[in-house]
Amino acid sequence: MTRNMGGLDRAIRLLVGVLLLGLYGALDSPWKFVTLLGLIPLGTALTGMCPLYSMLGISTRRSGPGGAR
């Protein structure tokens, strides 16, 4: 599993995931369970690997000395 996400991409996904999960207690059903979709960006941010990026051949990770694989 190779990382294909850069630092900014990971930070944005982490923020979006935490914000969505934070809404869980504030909303009523069925919207409460929609907030669980925040687990997806949170998981990809923590692992640094996006399966959709892999399928499409996209990488936002910087190449070179600071981002060598």
Can you describe this structure?
This protein has helices spanning 7-22, 31-34, 39-47, 51-56. The longest helix is centred in the N-terminal third of the chain and has 16 residues, at 7-22. The mean pLDDT is 91. The protein is an all-alpha fold and 69 residues long.
Key terms:
69 residues; mainly alpha; elongated
Helix content range:
40-55%
Global shape: elongated
Rounded to an integer in angstroms, the radius of gyration calculated over CA atoms is: 14 Å
Overall pLDDT metric = 91
Which stretches are low in confidence, meaning pLDDT under 50 for 5 or more residues running?
none
- In percent terms, what proportion of residues is strand? under 5%
Tell me the major beta sheet: none
Question: Can you summarize this structure?
Answer:
The chain is an all-alpha fold and about 70 residues long. The chain is built from 4 helices and no strands.
What order do the helices and strands come in, and which of them pair?
Blueprint lengths: L6 H16 L8 H4 L4 H9 L3 H6 L13
